[in-house]
């Protein structure tokens, strides 16, 4: 009984974490973020770490079904640690704007990180305005919010174009 509640709680936290990490799941970092004992993954993308945590959640569910209590205890603790690390990383993402100062092309990497942060914030703002638009009752409010969503989508597309340009410049320098 307690294991089912644990699994339901962890599944809920994992879903919330997926939503929290969605804007930055595909943004590459300059170096792997986590200790090898915490994650096997050595990726530079947060989404890959989240996938590993979700894989461990599936392994936990199968261990519960198989009745392997020691494995359940270890996987549950490990999964909680992974989810806490991912949550901390998502919360401190904004503090990593000067992550690449030691690199030759540090200025470009700083620009890349800055534009990735702009993109993340624009995506959040766009989602908020869309939700407000759906919830709006008055016609003039709906029109205003529709204009704001359109403007934000334009800014987001220009931001993504700038990101592509910066990524191409970095790729040219590293060839």
UniProtKB/TrEMBL annotation:
Entries under Pfam families matching the protein: PriC (PF07445)
Domain of life: Bacteria
InterPro entries: PriC, PriC_sf
Protein name: Primosomal replication protein N
Species of origin: Shimwellia blattae (strain ATCC 29907 / DSM 4481 / JCM 1650 / NBRC 105725 / CDC 9005-74) (Escherichia blattae)
């Amino acid at each position: 009984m307690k294991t089912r509640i644990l699994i339901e709680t962890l599944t809920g936290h994992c879903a919330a974490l997926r939503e929290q990490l969605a804007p930055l799941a595909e943004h590459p970092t300059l170096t792997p973020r986590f200790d090898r004992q915490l994650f096997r993954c050595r990726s530079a993308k947060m989404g890959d770490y989240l996938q590993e945590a979700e894989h461990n959640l599936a392994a936990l569910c199968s261990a519960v079904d198989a009745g392997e209590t020691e494995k359940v205890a270890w996987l549950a603790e490990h999964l909680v640690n992974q989810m806490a690390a991912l949550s901390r990383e998502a919360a401190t993402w904004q503090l990593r704007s000067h992550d690449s100062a030691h690199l030759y092309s540090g200025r470009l990497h700083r620009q890349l990180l800055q534009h990735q942060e702009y993109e993340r914030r624009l995506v959040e703002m766009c989602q908020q305005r869309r939700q407000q638009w759906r919830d709006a009752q008055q016609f003039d409010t709906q029109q205003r919010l529709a204009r704001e969503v359109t403007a934000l989508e334009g800014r987001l597309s220009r931001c993504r174009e700038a990101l592509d340009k910066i990524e191409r410049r970095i790729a040219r320098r590293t060839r």
